[in-house]
Design brief:
By secondary structure, the protein is mainly α. The chain has one domain. Helices cover about 90% and strands about 0% of the residues. Helix 3 crosses helix 4.
Length: about 80
């Protein structure tokens, strides 16, 4: 992005306000950063919760955990 802005002609900067361009670049970068953080953070949290709930289920009642995990391969193949 910086390279693109540096390669623009002086006439382009004369026609457009530099402050508004920089503001758009900063805003877009912040939105993209927030999206990536939300996706990865949410995904990791769900994985940790899934493992924790599975461990508690096995610890409390292993037989119930076995019956609960039987349909997991079918669900994975179906999705």
């Amino acid at each position: 992005m910086v390279t693109k802005l540096q390669n623009l002609s002086v006439a382009y900067y004369h026609r457009h306000q530099v402050g508004s361009m920089i503001s758009c670049v900063v805003h877009d970068s912040e939105v993209l950063h927030g999206l990536m953080q939300q996706i990865t953070g949410g995904f990791l949290l769900q994985i940790v919760q899934l493992v924790g709930v599975g461990a508690m289920l096995v610890w409390i009642n292993p037989k119930l955990a076995l019956f609960t995990l039987i349909p997991v391969p079918m669900v994975i193949l179906g999705s």
